[in-house]
Write a structure and sequence with these properties.
Elements: H1 8-29, E1 32-35, E2 39-42, E3 45-47, E4 51-55, E5 63-65, E6 70-74, H2 81-85, E7 91-95, E8 98-103, E9 106-110, E10 115-117, E11 125-127, H3 128-136
Parallel strand pairs: 2-5, 6-7
Antiparallel strand pairs: 1-4, 2-3, 4-6, 7-8, 8-9, 10-11
Length: 137
């Protein structure tokens, strides 16, 4: 007997949580926090990245006015460039076979053997293989 199908929203939430857990040690060393629930104000809209990283204290109301230090989306991402427009230095769009790093200077594909980085934040990095494994389970 096969297991019941997994709700796609639950599956995406679990993959985001596994990815957040991989980021936690680096972010904690920078005195920041990782969240899968943080709302980010982008213009007049509220958006929720799959994973948000902020160096500093979390907002009391759970809504970040401004941009996170890193927004991570799971592929396929819907308008990840919005976070760059709001001021985020980088957005990672992670898929099973690698990731794309978006910055204000453009996009760079990062294969599973590469390193995901954030401009201006040298301590904020993650081997792409760990990010890909987080999506696989």
């Amino acid at each position: 007997m096969s297991p019941p199908p997994v709700d796609p929203h639950v599956d995406a939430g679990l993959r985001a949580a596994r990815l957040a857990r991989r980021l936690l040690p680096a972010v904690a060393a920078l005195d920041g926090f990782v969240s899968t629930q943080l709302l980010v104000r982008v213009g007049a809209s509220l958006r929720r990245p799959a994973v948000s990283v902020v160096i500093g204290e979390p907002p009391v109301d759970g809504v970040l006015d401004g941009a996170p230090d890193l927004a991570v989306e799971l592929a396929p991402a819907v308008r990840p460039e919005d976070y760059l427009s709001a001021g985020a230095p980088a957005v990672w769009v992670v898929a099973a076979g690698g990731a794309t790093i978006l910055t204000r200077r453009g996009a760079r594909r990062c294969g599973p053997t590469g390193l995901l980085t954030v401009p201006g934040r040298p301590g904020l990095k993650l081997p792409a293989a760990l990010a890909c494994r987080a999506l696989a389970g």
